[in-house]
Amino acid sequence: MSELIRKNASELVQMLAKGEVSSVEVTQAHIDQISKVGDAVHSFLHLTTENALAVAKEVDRRRAAGESLPALAGVPIAVKDNLTTTDAPTTAGSKILEGWIAPYDATVVTKLRQEMMPILGKTNLDEFAMGSSTEFSAYGPSKNPWDLTRIPGGSGGGSSSVVSSFQSPLAIGSDTGGSIRFPGAVTGTVGIKPTYGAVSRYGLIALASSLDQVGPVARNVLDAALLQDVIGGYDPRDSTSLKDSLGSMVEAAKSGSLKGKKVGVIKQLSGAGFQQGVQNRFAEALKIITDAGAEIVEVDCPSFEYAIDAYYLILPAEASSNLAKFDSVRFGMRVTPEGNPTIERVMAATREAGFGPEVKRRIILGTYALSAGSFDKFYGAALKVRTLIQRDFDAAFAKADVLVSPTAPTTAFKFGEKVADPLAMYLNDIATIPANLAGIPGISVPIGLADEDNLPVGIQFLAPAHKDAALYEVGAALEGILEGIWGKRMMDFAPKLEGN
Predict the structure, then answer these.
(1) How far apart are CA 51 and CA 87, in angstroms?
(2) Active-site residue among 94, 142, 155, 328?
(3) Residue 287 and residue 244: Cα distance in Å, rounded?
(4) Is the dihedral of CA 166, 227, 114, 174 positive or negative?
(5) Cα–Cα distance, 88 to 109 (Å, whole number)
(6) Burial of 409 (0-12, 13-18, 19+ CB in 10 A)
(7) DSSP string, 27-94
(8) What does the alpha-carbon distance between residue 249 and residue 255 come to, in Å, rounded to a whole number?
(9) Contact status, residue 445 vs residue 478, Cβ threshold 8 Å
(10) Phi, psi of 418 (to 5 degrees)
(11) Is residue 346 domain-resident?
(12) Are 112 and 231 in contact (CB under 8 A)?
């Protein structure tokens, strides 16, 4: 195995700048790794390796000519397959969009191209990002590189597994209720949900428009910071895009410190219901945080008890509206029943064949929640709870600079364990959902392996809206201390996949 694939993005940036390695060599090393482990892990739905090599060659040509290049030029990346691309299909993990080529690139993809980052391909996801395990992809699940019998999280299991299996140093994900952070926790990667509006959603196939947020997946905090600095910023094509600059995430990561920080432990997001190994690593992390000069305070967020209930009314309601466009008329799959069918019959047949069970379940739930006689009782009530959660966050941040909890209640579970029980699956997002409801940023950082199964555990930091830099500061500080204690990086604990 080429040692290049075990280099972090920040290390590759330095090596490329010094001429120690070419972008073609770096890109080819990752393509070779995809060939070795790709079938076993199933991270990608579509590969664009030829285009990636072409970009890498152009980066090398310009560098040799002495031209100025962007910071991440020549560093490969993978993109979640719910972001539109003109050079590869965009399926959102659904049969209803199988083979569909978008007529435009998502803004995030455009920025990656402008940065001259070779895009290796599109990563797997739960269909239309509905799920916590990637088991609901119409094209089969991705697998966790730490244990191929277990899930890599969801909906962005493809992006998390591609980074943790060294097929790409960086990836793009989207987070509606934890779909970057939960996969990060169970695969030992770093996942960031930026402040709502900090990264453009133009070209992101919408699940729930008031909750969705694009963000970085990486193997360390500095790499995630480098990527957010590239993809973030105002976009006039996205009506929810923030006009104000959030500052440099890289500077925050490089100046990482916990000294003098007030860190709020969320009372409702620890203890009962959390795996013992998760609790153990979390307790150890809190001690490290305290020893580093931070003050731990407990904060009470009583409305969090209802967060999952509210989320699974708001999300299906918005999803049922967003997915109405998949009607067999304008684009995507079309199934024509026998005889002389009406448009209604064609639409019904297409949606029956094209949508999977989880998508159908949420469309039905969302349509009912928005129906006459149910709107105020369900959707309206959920919006009120959302407001209460936002107020709980405001009160908590009056006492603490950042809040902290385990990212997930358990480590990665085995395939099939929770598919038959949707409620059990939904509970995986108990710690991550509140941030999406409030629009605030969150980061998941690996803090070690659980005692029971030797699988990764993540810690989640949350910050007030627009203060993403605070997450990079505390996340990088904790990461640095842990690596000093371990004597190696988190991914060095990962078992080697066959073929490495």
Answers:
(1) 8
(2) 155
(3) 36
(4) positive
(5) 12
(6) buried
(7) HHHHHHHHHHHHHHH--EEEE-HHHHHHHHHHHHHHHHTT----TTTT--EEEETTB--SSS---TT-
(8) 10
(9) yes
(10) -125, 5
(11) no
(12) yes
In-domain check, residue 323: no
* C-alpha 143: how far from chain center: 15
| Tokens 């770096």, residue located | 26
Kindly report the pTM of this predicted structure: 0.96
| Contact between residue 258 and residue 293 where contact means Cβ atoms under 8 Å apart | yes
Spatial CA neighbour of 177 closest among 312, 365, 379: 312
Helices 276-291/468-486 angle, 10° precision: 100
Structure tokens that stand for 359 in this block: 């998508």
Half-sphere exposure for 488 (CA within 13 Å, toward CB):
8
> Among 22, 36, 43, 80, which one carries the catalytic annotation?
80
- The answer to whether position 71 is within a domain reads yes
Strand partners, 78: 121, 171
Secondary structure of residue 164 in the 3-state scheme? helix
pLDDT along the chain (500 residues), means of 10: 90 97 98 97 98 98 97 98 98 97 98 98 98 97 98 97 98 98 98 98 97 98 98 98 96 96 95 91 98 98 96 96 92 89 91 95 94 91 98 98 98 93 86 98 98 97 98 98 97 78
Residue 410 belongs to a domain with what CATH number? 3.90.1300.10
Residue 399's domain spans which residues? 3-303+388-493
Residue 340 burial (C-beta neighbours within 10 Å; 0-12, 13-18, 19+): exposed
* Radius of gyration for the chain, computed over Cα atoms and rounded to the nearest angstrom: 22
Nearest CA to 5 among 154, 120, 149? 120
Residues whose CB falls within 8 Å of the CB of residue 169, separated by 6 or more in sequence, listed in order:
5, 7, 8, 9, 12, 30, 75, 76, 77, 163, 218, 219, 223
Tokens representing 40 are: 């076993």
Active site residue 80: yes
Is 233 within a domain?
Answer: yes
Which DSSP symbol is given to 150? B
| Strand (E) or helix (H) holding 266 | strand 262-266
Let me know: does 102 contact 85? Beta carbons within 8 Å.
yes
Q: Which of 23, 179, 328, 444 is catalytic?
A: 179
* DSSP-derived 3-state class of residue 204: strand
Residue type present at position 177: G
> What is the tally of structural domains in the chain?
1
SS3 218: strand
